[in-house]
Amino acid sequence: MLFIHTIKAKYLGIGAALVTVAAVATWAAVTVSASPVSLITSDIKAKAASGQVGLFRFGLDADAGETLSAVAVTINNSGTSAATGTDFANVNIYRDDGDNILEAGGADVLVGCQTTVNVGSTTQVSASSNNALPGTFFVTLAAGASGI
Asked: What is the pLDDT of residue 5?
């Protein structure tokens, strides 16, 4: 079972793991129109093989057709956690359809998916489609089949 704590500042506790928003890679004149906002308002539990759990959303503006190229997320163990990358199925980026509500697999479209999730180092999710700016994006995490 994956235990997800509320995000405080830029950290997210998962089990006894921490997720840190490391960077949003962008080019040209891009501005953050909405800083990362936690989607987790109270502690939740995500079972093994859970669906997408929304971690945070952010918005970007642009001036000349720029695109989102990647989002980097770092998951760190803390305390007695022994989580490994195989405990997680993926980290995804979704583009919001304009309502600021995460609808993974629904109205929000997949921008990028990384199935190799690192613990203790950066996991970079490339934004390969649906990544034109301006836009609001969600970052999600799914537990693997074995859970934590």
From this structure: 41
Please give the Cα distance from 94 to 139 (Å, whole number).
Answer: 7
Domains along the sequence of the chain with CATH: 2-143 (2.60.40)
pLDDT-above-90 percentage for the chain: 37
Look up residue 77 and give its two tokens.
Answer: 């163990």
Is pLDDT above 80 for 28? no
Cα separation, 121 vs 68, in Å, equals 21
The per-residue DSSP string of 50-69 comes to ---EEEEEEEEEESSS-B--
Give pLDDT tens digits for 39-76: 877 766 667 888 898 989 999 888 777 889 999 988 87
Question: Which tokens in the block code for residue 35?
Answer: 């800083």
CA distance 30 to 62: 4
b/e for 77-105, b at 16 or more Cβ within 10 A? beeebebbeebbbbbbbbbbeeeeebebe
